[in-house]
Amino acid sequence: MANTKLSAWEKVEIARNPKRKTSLDYINEIFDTFIELHGDRAFRDDKAMVCGLASIGNQNFTIIAEQKGRTTKENIERNFGMPNPESYRKAVRFMKQAEKFKRPVITFIDTKGAYPGIGAEERGQGEAIAKSMFEMARLKVPIISVVIGEGSSGGALAIGVANKVFMLENAIYSILSPEGYSSILWKDSSRFKEAADKMKLTADDLLNLKVIDKIIKEPKGEDEETFIKIANNLKKEIQKSISEMNKLDEDMIVGDRYIKFRNMGDYKEV
Question: In what helix (H) or strand (E) does residue 135 lie, and over which residues does it extend?
Fold first, then answer.
């Protein structure tokens, strides 16, 4: 059988599939233990973002993950995976805790974007996203971000400022949706398939552009055995990268992240 390459739009459809595994599915499969922690200590606990403590053997981690639902009830509870400002403030709270206790941070990205509602804007959505990126940029512990499904807009980038960015083979990562892109650029939302091609949002595109560091292959099939293979491969990459970064001192960890996003060559004190 010929090996047919999926189009960018076909990958968008796979990434959006409501049956696709969520962050909690990966967390529960990859880590030996996981304890969820709640609240931003300012407004409320937003369930579109899951945060907590996890471990693999003797290595402890802080987990920050965008979480979608599957049923209508779950999606309403999770706000369809679109974080409010309190999600990002909760994330920052646990990032700082991770730094205090020297725990690497693992983030799972899977959102169509930060929630654009009136209440979210009133509570400072833009500031919360910017603050999350600012704190991640200078965090003194290793950070790995994994794009597992949709990675769209500032809602995704808010937890994507990492030393290493991994991406599942059929995930997407972009500035906005193809529908939004075509509506803005061409004033015609029906050209979304063309937009998907032009946006360079697939894992292959982003690896070539050096936006991400590693593609986690996804064997064909949606059964549990296939999922376990993907999760195990991701687990190995996380363990390998954290083992390497644990050898670096704090300045080197921050500097490595700085170089990655600023592309300024050798790290210099600024």
Answer: helix 125-137
